[in-house]
């Protein structure tokens, strides 16, 4: 079943998450129509290879054209229109930057895998539960409702101001008419009656002025309360969700809703500002003793300006944190002299600001004590915000060509680059701009989440560990001295984040049994880890007992192994992986002989092995484990083929494949058959063929096991032997001779 078919079978709550990341940059109808073709391409590799990305883009357009021809014959007008629009988008937007569409599609496929993994997990973790609480959802609805009510109130006040203006014009006209009469005419009874009417009208004017000022004051108060409480909390929650998403958690949404709220509030405040300006204009034409306008208007205007300043300052956010395109799953880790991207948005979307705001990027601004290392940003570091580059028309700017460069120290050498000193140093990328609108000048500043600067790719695993620990442990967006005294983390939350590393990076998260094994690995014993606190040193700096590496280095090597060598097997759920030697024997001891499981090595970095159960003649159960396969050996022979072709030579010298059933009872070929690189080769004689008289051959891993041996075997026990070679040996040599040759 294709990945897209699995996505379509998800529950509605997961489908809503999928809907969030498909937009005009990569429309969902293309994902649907070209599902199998899209999934068969290597978009992740193309994201780092411009030539490959260009070829894939051209092939994608060809695929769209073929779909267009098909739907044209079916006369599906709506789909024809959409496909033509998509074709125009692909040709126009990505022709000059084909790697961009490769990054987008790669990210979409990865998010689908993460959501599929999350849907397969029986229970949400504590972090994910907190991000999706009903209290948060209720507050979101309340914010949207209150913003809409405020907008309506401001519009109603507009009508009151217009009525007040009309009433004052009528009063002004009638008053000036009386003033123009001769003195004798002013003493008439009719005029005296008109003067009484004017006095009543002035009283009404005074009442209406007070009423309008009161309504304006209420609107301002409601905006102030909303900004101070719910809107601020909503923005902080979005930033927290962004932090969690950056370390592999659920995709964060809600920024478009926040933009709508910020924009409506800004429009309401500017509307109130215009109302106060109109009152000032009315004041210049008419005033009187006890007039409320000169007393209340200055205070209200000052409050409106104050709220506008705060609203604009809070609306300037980093929409997408700094990230190297070469490592999309490792944001906030930046390598010197390698380009990274970062995107900012102004949540107040006003047409008057399009291309009017220029944003400047700097690094470590006003920071002088956190680190001895100093950096500058090379590349285009000043750009204008606009509404044209984003698919949703938001007012944003994306820096795509920034490069951090390390400056030499005063002594002429670079700063300390020890393995942990560098990866525990946090730096900040700052952005500043100025908004000039309707007589207001507002200076805006914001910063990225802390980033780690590395000068060598070998530092990336520890740098990423620092990013995980920081964003798991604190909501503070700018604590650059965090690692001077890093706090402990709750083990249950850390395990949840570790599962996210697998779901986001290799498409399948960890189940409760796998997480229990990791907990035991970290704590050295069986623990109830709900409230257990784990130190940073235990996670990333202290070696595991009896090993020369830390827990995180061990786990990162496993992630790399899965990604490069056993990804399909992992996604299918056939790699148990995280199980101790003791636990695997408990699982296998009562199973049919030939039942095996796959687990990651605890003693070799990036190694995977398999263990099977066998039964001796006396009925005793025995277990056999193979020397772990590492990336070097797996680069030469696919792991699925190893499982298919693996042979052992027992004491009776008869080679056979001992692997029959994947735990608990899945026939081996049923589990792994679709992943074999080719069908099993039949044994052939030299005369049976082969190119230019050669015998076709494959490598077969072979082990020799003695009856009394249950220990893991050394690499010298694993020899390459082709089926054809073995057939020839059986024809001309005795079993004893073959054993001698193999030994």
TrEMBL record:
What GO molecular-function term can you cite, just one? DNA binding
**Record's keyword annotation contains Nucleus:** yes
Q: Which UniProt keywords apply?
A: Acetylation, Activator, ADP-ribosylation, Coiled coil, Cytoplasm, DNA-binding, Isopeptide bond, Methylation, Nucleus, Phosphoprotein, SH2 domain, Transcription, Transcription regulation, Ubl conjugation
Task: Give the protein family.
Answer: Belongs to the transcription factor STAT family.
Gene giving rise to this polypeptide: Stat4
Q: Name one Pfam family in it.
A: SH2
| Keyword Coiled coil annotated | yes
Can you name this protein? Signal transducer and activator of transcription
**What InterPro entries does the record tag this protein with?**
p53-like_TF_DNA-bd_sf, SH2, SH2_dom_sf, STAT, STAT4_CC, STAT4_DBD, STAT4_SH2, STAT_linker
- The signal peptide here is none
Main localization category? cytoplasm
Gene Ontology BP, a term: type II interferon-mediated signaling pathway
Q: List each copy of the SH2 domain by range.
A: 570-672
């Amino acid at each position: 079943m294709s990945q897209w078919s699995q996505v379509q079978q998800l529950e509605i709550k997961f489908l809503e998450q999928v809907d969030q990341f498909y937009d005009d940059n990569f429309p969902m109808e293309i994902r649907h129509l070209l599902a199998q073709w899209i999934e068969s391409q290597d978009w992740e590799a193309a994201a780092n290879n411009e030539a490959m990305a260009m070829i894939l883009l051209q092939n994608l357009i060809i695929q769209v054209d073929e779909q267009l021809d098909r739907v044209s014959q079916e006369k599906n007008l709506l789909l024809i229109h959409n496909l033509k629009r998509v074709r125009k988008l692909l040709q126009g937007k990505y022709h000059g930057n084909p790697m961009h569409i490769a990054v987008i599609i790669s990210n979409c496929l990865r998010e689908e895998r993460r959501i599929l993994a999350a849907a397969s997990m029986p229970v949400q973790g504590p972090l994910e539960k907190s991000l999706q609480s009903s209290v948060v959802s209720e507050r979101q609805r309340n914010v949207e409702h209150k913003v809409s009510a405020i907008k309506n109130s401001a519009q109603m006040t507009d009508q009151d101001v217009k009525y007040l203006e009309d009433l004052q014009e009528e009063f002004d006209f009638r008053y000036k008419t009386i003033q123009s009469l001769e003195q004798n005419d002013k003493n008439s009874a009719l005029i005296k009656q008109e003067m009484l009417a004017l006095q009543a009208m002035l009283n009404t004017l005074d009442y209406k002025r007070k009423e309008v000022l009161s309504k304006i004051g209420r609107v301002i108060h409601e905006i102030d309360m909303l900004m101070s409480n719910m809107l601020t909390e909503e923005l902080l929650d979005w930033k927290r969700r962004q932090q969690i998403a950056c370390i592999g958690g659920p995709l964060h949404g809600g920024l478009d809703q926040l933009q709508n709220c910020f924009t409506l509030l800004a429009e309401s405040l500017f509307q109130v500002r215009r109302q106060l300006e109109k009152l000032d204009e009315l004041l210049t034409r008419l005033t009187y003793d006890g007039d409320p306008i000169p007393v209340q208007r200055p205070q209200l205007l000052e409050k409106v300006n104050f709220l506008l300043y705060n609203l604009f300052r809070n609306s300037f956010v980093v929409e997408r944190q700094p990230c190297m395109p070469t490592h999309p799953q490792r944001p906030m880790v930046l390598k010197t002299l390698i380009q990274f991207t970062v995107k900012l948005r102004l949540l107040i979307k006003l047409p008057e600001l399009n291309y009017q705001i220029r944003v400047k990027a700097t690094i470590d601004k006003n920071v002088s004590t956190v680190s001895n290392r100093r950096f500058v940003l090379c590349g285009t570091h000043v750009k204008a915000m606009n509404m044209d580059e984003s698919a949703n028309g938001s007012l944003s700017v994306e820096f795509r060509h920034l490069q951090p460069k390390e400056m030499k120290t005063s002594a002429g050498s670079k700063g300390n680059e020890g393995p942990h000193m560098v990866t525990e140093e946090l730096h900040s990328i700052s952005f500043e701009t100025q908004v000039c609108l309707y007589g207001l000048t507002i200076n805006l500043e914001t910063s990225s989440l802390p980033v780690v600067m590395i000068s060598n790719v070998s530092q990336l695993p520890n740098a990423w560990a620092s990013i995980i620990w920081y964003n798991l442990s604190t909501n503070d967006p700018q604590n650059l001295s965090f690692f001077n005294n890093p706090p402990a983390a709750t083990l249950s939350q850390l395990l949840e984040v570790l599962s996210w590393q697998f779901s986001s990076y290799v498409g399948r998260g960890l189940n409760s049994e796998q997480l229990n094994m990791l907990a035991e690995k970290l704590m050295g014993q069986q623990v109830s880890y709900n409230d257990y606190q784990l130190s940073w040193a235990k996670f990333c700096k202290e070696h595991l007992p009896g090993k020369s590496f830390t827990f995180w280095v061990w786990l990162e090597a496993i992630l790399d192994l899965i990604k490069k060598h056993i990804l399909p097997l992992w996604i299918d759920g056939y790699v148990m992986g995280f199980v101790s030697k003791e636990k695997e024997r408990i699982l296998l001891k009562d199973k049919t002989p030939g039942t095996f499981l796959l687990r990651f090595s605890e003693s070799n970095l990036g190694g995977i092995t398999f263990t099977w159960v066998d039964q001796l003649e006396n009925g005793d159960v025995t277990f056999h484990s193979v020397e772990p396969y590492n990336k070097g050996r797996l680069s030469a022979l696919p792991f699925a083929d190893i499982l298919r072709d693996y042979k052992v030579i027992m004491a009776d010298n008869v080679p056979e494949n001992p692997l029959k059933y994947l735990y608990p009872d899945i026939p081996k070929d049923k589990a792994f058959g679709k992943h074999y690189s080719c069908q099993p080769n039949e044994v052939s004689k030299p005369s049976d063929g082969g190119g230019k008289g050669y015998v076709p051959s494959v490598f077969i891993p072979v082990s020799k096991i003695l009856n009394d041996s249950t220990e893991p075997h050394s690499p010298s026990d694993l020899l390459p032997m082709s089926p054809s070679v073995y057939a020839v040996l059986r024809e001309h040599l005795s079993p004893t001779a073959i054993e001698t040759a193999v030994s």
